Amino acid sequence: MKKTLALVLSLVLLLTAATAMAATEIDYWSVFTGGDGAVMQGMVDAFNASQDEVHVNHTPMTADDLYQKVPLTVQTGSGIPDVCVVHIERIPNFVNQELLYSYDLDLVAEAGIKQENYNQSAWVKSTIDDEQYGIPLDVHGYVTYINKDLFDKYDLNEFVADGYITFDEIRAIGDKARAAGWEGGIFNLGWMRAQMLCYYAQLAEGHKLTDDGIAPSLDKEAMKKAMETMKALHDDGYTTKKTDDALSMFYGGEMLVWSEGIWMKAAVVDAGVNFEMYPAVCYSPETCKNWMSSHNFVQFADEERTEEEDLAVAKFVNFMGENSLTWAKDAAQVPAHVSINEVAEFADMPQAFLADPERGDELAIYYYLHWGLFDTAFSRVGWDFIDGTIAIDDAIAQVEKEIADSIAAQ
Q1: Closest listed residue to residue 186, CA positions, set 233, 251, 229
Q2: How many CA atoms lie within 13 A of 74 on its CB side?
Q3: What 3-state DSSP class applies to 108?
Q4: Rounded CA gap, 41 and 47, in Å?
Q5: Angle, vertex CA 123, rays to CA 117 and CA 128, nearest 5
Q6: Do 278 and 147 contact (CB within 8 A), yes or no?
Q7: Dmax of the chain from CA atoms?
Q8: Are 132 and 103 in contact (CB under 8 A)?
Q9: Given this model, what pLDDT does residue 207 score?
Q10: To which H or E segment does residue 26 belong?
Q11: How many Cβ atoms sit within 10 Å of the Cβ of residue 323?
Q12: Which of 40, 41, 94, 231 would give a disulfide with 99, using CB separation of 3.0 to 4.6 Å?
C-alpha cells in the first residue's frame, strides 16, 4: 500500500514538473522601479497564477538603463527580452534604428488583441507605415489638482462647475480667494516640459514639433503665446516662483490649484489632501489638451524568437489590458484597454475622464523621431523665460538650434 501511494505521489510530482516545463517562458523588461514596479510585479504574478501555459519573468529597471541596455542587447543578439514596456515617444526612433519588430496583427488577434479594444489616441501613435509597433498599456499625463477644502472655504467651486479651469479663471480664483483673506499660493510652475506641452498643444495645430519628421520646426507663434501666458501669470503674482517648493505647498494646504502628473495621485491621498482632479488648465474648454504619454508593450528584434513565444507574449499583453483595474487603482494610471470604462470602480476614480472615448481629442501624445533630443533641449530652458533669464524668442530659437546641432552631430 505504501509503495502504491509513493508511486502515485511520484507520478503527481512528475506531471506537475512536466506541466511547469511545458509552460512557455517569457522574459519581460519594464521601466517600473518604484511603487509602480511593485504593482506591475503583482499583475505579472496574477497572470502567471491564472494559467499554466505561459510563465513571465519580470525584470524592472530605470528607463535610462533600459534605453541604454536594449540597443546593445539587440546588437549582440543575446539576452533580448521577449517583450518590453517603453514610453511611446521612443518608438519612432527605435523603428528608425531597426530595433523593433512590428506585431503580426493576425497572430495577436488569436489572443484577443484588436485595435478597437484600445484607446485610439495611443494605438495610432505607435502605428508607423501601416505597421503596429506598440500595444498600449496606459495613457498618463499632466493634469490639474485642486484643494477641495480651500475651494469650499473660499467659495470657488463655480470656477470648476463645467469640469475645466481656464487661464482667466486662474486669475479670478486668485482674486476672489485673496479678497476673502487667502495668503497662500494660487497656481504653480510645475514640470516645465510637461506643463508647457499641454498649453502648446492647445495652440499649435497637431501639436507639431517638426514639418518633415526630422528637422525641428516648432509653431513659434503658438509656443511664444503659451510662454507669454505663463510669464504674465507669473509677473502678475498668480504663480509660484521658480525656487518655491510647490509640492510641499499643495500637500500642506498652501496652494489652491496644482499642475502635476496623474502619477502623483497616491501621494496626494497619502498626504491627506481632499482633492479633485481636472484636465490641464486651458484657454477654453473647446481647446483643452493634456500632454500625455503612454507605456507601450513592444518586441525588440530577435531572430531566435519563435511564433510560440510571440503568441505567449500576446496572451500576456491581452491579460494585462483586460485586467488593468489594479494599474488604475494602485499605480494611478489610466488603462488603455477600453474595457476599463465598463468597470464601476474605475468610473469613480478622479483620472477616469482621461479614458473617456468621447474626449480622446483632449489627449496630446507627441510623435517625433528625435523626441529624446527635443526633451533634452526643451527641458534645458526650464522656467528661465519666466523671470527673464532668457528672452522667449531666444528660448525657442535655442531649442531648435540645439536639436538641429545634435542631429547633425549624429
Answers
A1: 233
A2: 19
A3: helix
A4: 10
A5: 140
A6: no
A7: 90
A8: yes
A9: 94
A10: strand 24-30
A11: 17
A12: 94
Q: How many Cβ atoms are within 10 Å of 33's Cβ, its own excluded?
A: 15
**Mean pLDDT score of the chain:** 94
Runs of H (alpha helix) within 236-272 = 246-251, 265-270
Task: Compute the CA torsion angle 103, 106, 112, 117 (nearest 10 deg).
Answer: 70
Q: How far apart are CA 131 and CA 108, in angstroms?
A: 13
Enter the C-alpha cell of residue 235: 509677473
Average pLDDT over every residue of 214-225: 97
pLDDT in tens, 44-83: 999 999 999 999 999 999 999 999 999 999 999 999 999 9
The cell numbers describing 203, all together, are 495652440
Q: Tell me which residue has cell 495610432.
A: 124
219 SS3 class: coil
Q: Is 379 helix (H, G, I), strand (E, B) or coil?
A: helix
- Give which of 240, 226, 247 is closest to 364, Cα–Cα: 226
pLDDT in tens, 191-204: 999 999 999 999 99
What cell was used for 158? 463655480
In angstroms, the CA 325 to CA 334 distance is: 9
What H or E segment, with its residue span, contains residue 276? Answer: strand 275-278
CB 403 within 8 A of CB 393: no
What stretches of 35-166 show up as alpha helix (H) in DSSP? 35-50, 63-76, 91-96, 105-109, 120-123, 148-153
Q: What is the DSSP letter of 121?
A: H
Which DSSP letter does residue 53 get? S
Burial of 321 (0-12, 13-18, 19+ CB in 10 A): buried
- Cα 326 to Cα 36, 223, 353: the distances in Å are 10, 37, 17
> All 3 cell numbers of residue 380?
534645458
Ordered structural domains, the chain, with CATH: 2-137+294-322 (3.40.190.10), 140-292+368-408 (3.40.190.10)
CA distance 229 to 75: 46
18-32, 222-236, 245-259, 305-319: which has the minimum mean pLDDT? Answer: 18-32
